[in-house]
């Protein structure tokens, strides 16, 4: 495995290895122990869109591992002035040991991966967000002591995070229910892929029914980066597709409430749900650091 572009690039075995390594790295960091296996290695971080968690956790992660990260705003490098993705990938491969990229079009990542001789990691595209989902699986494992045999309920937009979650649920063996307004269902390509991977997937527009006996309730923004022009319509269409106390009440008593963040209290999630006892959102955010360090060690150091 050279790149991590889609969640489907990972086998169950890969996911297990990454989560075990991430847990070990997390434990060692809490004891102040240093794992600097990426000494003298450099990571390029191309960003076409905003980021708090992804940018900071990758930069800190590389630093923790003894390496160096270079933030490359897409507008500041020549790609912003028309240099091709292919040439950029070839040039960066002569300097760096890995590239992460947050892009509007998933195709850009595919081209980067095909033309770079170094690992390329998806830091979010319009189609997927696999690094987020690895941190989420680590969080689920910490709270539930397992990553399979659960009911995972996605509430809201059938977007990039949802696509990667559907694939992940299929790979690890979790039932996945996607609840979204009509017209916002996940891309058919990902529905087919999820089923091909053996996923048990239901798509519905009835939040209360779907949330019954959920082990995990997960949501994301109603207006993703790139969807801003549709904001007004989306806010109307998504009304009623909120994770709140009503949904928590019909879920399992030990349900965990997840959100990849950034969150909008009162829209996709109520303040009571995100700030209440079931919420694990800040553990998810922290686990971005540990899970991505495991990915970096696997891809850049072959661990
Ligand atoms: N969840 C996530 O990817 O956050 P950022 O957009 O802040 O990186
Ligand atoms: N779906 C969101 C995720 C942000 C981390 C977006 O693409 O903007």
Automatic annotation (TrEMBL):
The keyword Oxidoreductase does not apply. Its EC number is 2.1.3.3. It catalyses: carbamoyl phosphate + L-ornithine = L-citrulline + phosphate + H(+). It is found in: Cytoplasm. GO terms for biological process: citrulline biosynthetic process; L-arginine biosynthetic process via ornithine; regulation of DNA-templated transcription. L-ornithine binds at residues 160, 220, 224-225. GO terms for molecular function: amino acid binding; DNA binding; ornithine carbamoyltransferase activity. InterPro entries: Asp/Orn_carbamoyltranf_P-bd (IPR006132), Asp/Orn_carbamoylTrfase (IPR006130), Asp/Orn_carbamoylTrfase_sf (IPR036901), Asp_carbamoyltransf_Asp/Orn-bd (IPR006131), MerR-type_HTH_dom (IPR000551), Orn/put_carbamltrans (IPR002292), OTCase_ArgI (IPR024904). Carbamoyl phosphate binds at residues 51-54, 78, 102, 129-132, 260-261, 288. The keyword Cytoplasm applies. One of its GO terms (cellular component) is cytoplasm. Its main location: cytoplasm. Signal peptide: none annotated. It comes from the Archaea. Residues 1-21 form the HTH merR-type domain. Keywords: Cytoplasm, Transferase. It is an enzyme of class 2 (transferase). Belongs to the aspartate/ornithine carbamoyltransferase superfamily. OTCase family. This is Ornithine carbamoyltransferase. It comes from Methanolapillus millepedarum.
């Amino acid at each position: 495995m050279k790149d991590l572009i889609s969640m489907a690039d990972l086998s169950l075995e890969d996911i297990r290895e990454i989560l075990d390594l991430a847990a070990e790295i997390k434990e060692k960091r809490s004891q102040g122990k240093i794992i600097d296996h990426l000494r003298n290695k450099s990571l390029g971080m191309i960003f076409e869109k905003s980021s708090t968690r992804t940018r900071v956790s990758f930069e800190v992660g590389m630093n923790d591992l003894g390496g160096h990260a270079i933030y490359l705003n897409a507008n500041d490098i020549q790609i912003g002035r028309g240099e091709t993705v292919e040439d950029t990938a070839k040039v960066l491969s002569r300097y760096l040991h890995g590239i992460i990229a947050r892009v509007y079009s998933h195709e850009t990542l595919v081209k980067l991966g095909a033309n770079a001789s170094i690992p390329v990691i998806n830091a979010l595209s319009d189609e997927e967000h696999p690094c987020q989902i690895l941190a989420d699986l680590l969080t689920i494992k910490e709270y539930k002591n397992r990553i399979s045999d659960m009911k995972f309920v996605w509430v809201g937009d059938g977007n990039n995070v949802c696509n990667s979650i559907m694939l992940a649920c299929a790979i690890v063996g979790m039932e996945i229910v996607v609840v979204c307004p009509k017209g916002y269902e996940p891309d058919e390509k990902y529905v087919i892929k999820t089923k091909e991977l053996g996923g048990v997937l239901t798509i519905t527009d009835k939040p209360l029914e779907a949330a019954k006996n959920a082990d995990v309730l997960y949501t994301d923004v109603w207006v993703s980066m790139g969807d801003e022009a549709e904001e007004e319509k989306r806010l109307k269409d998504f009304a009623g597709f909120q994770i709140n106390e009503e949904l928590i009440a019909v879920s399992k008593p030990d349900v965990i409430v997840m959100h990849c963040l950034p969150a909008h209290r009162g829209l996709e999630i109520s303040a009571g749900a995100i700030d209440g006892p079931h919420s694990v959102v800040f553990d998810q955010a922290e686990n971005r650091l540990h899970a991505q360090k495991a990915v970096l060690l696997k891809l850049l150091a072959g661990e």
